[in-house]
Amino acid sequence: MLPTKGDILRNNKLVVFGGGAAIGALGGLIGLGGAEFRLPLLIGAFRFAALEAVILNKATSLVVVGAALLFRTRAISVEAMASHWGIILNLLAGSLLGAWFGAGWAVRLRSATLHRVIALLLLFIAGVLLLGHDAEFSGRAVLPGVWLMAAGGAAGFAIGVVAALLGVAGGELLIPTLVLLFGLDVKLAGSLSLAISLPTMLVGFARYSRDDSFAVLGRNRAFLWIMAAGSIMGAMIGGFLLGAVPSAVLLPLLAGLLVLSSVKVWRHG
Q: Is 0.85 topped by the overall pTM?
């Protein structure tokens, strides 16, 4: 049996590393890991099945987020993040449940349906990039006491579901939530989002490990680590270039890329 185009690309280490680096740089330009851009690449170029692509994306995101969290402790200390433990626990209460629910839903969906869900969520993320990424720091929460906790739990649940279905860290949703709902500074929100994302992804990952599709990680171990290494390097490069391109230009371009990816994923299904 002749190798497919996807097989050829998967076995090309330079292509895999370069793809990871390009995706990481895109995410780094806006302070994110880039997983929402990586997923369409895994489905479209590398020709993984939808659920396999989500699991690979989740595994790669775990490595990238773990590295990013270590890097960011130089700018935002662990003590500064720990002082906001109440907010972290509030969002985690919803996101952990959402991640388990979302992963369980994903493994039960037909492949064609999962493609449609992914395509629609990519459109949603594109809208968030355009409307929510420039959220402004207010210094105060928008709701009092128990209402804030309820809103935080609900937001966390929704973010956990989306993160599980796309195999992403969820920073593109967590950061606007932390800024708009809890009134935090965007730099602090970026670090807290990583602290919330890591356990959320681990829960989704644990749920996916119970499905037969999880074997894709064993079959593509080298691919995974090369993609993760490229993504980390790309994220670092993108971070250094952060602010080099005006947000008014960059965000519409990235949103447009997500819209195009959404159309391709929809057709791929």
A: yes
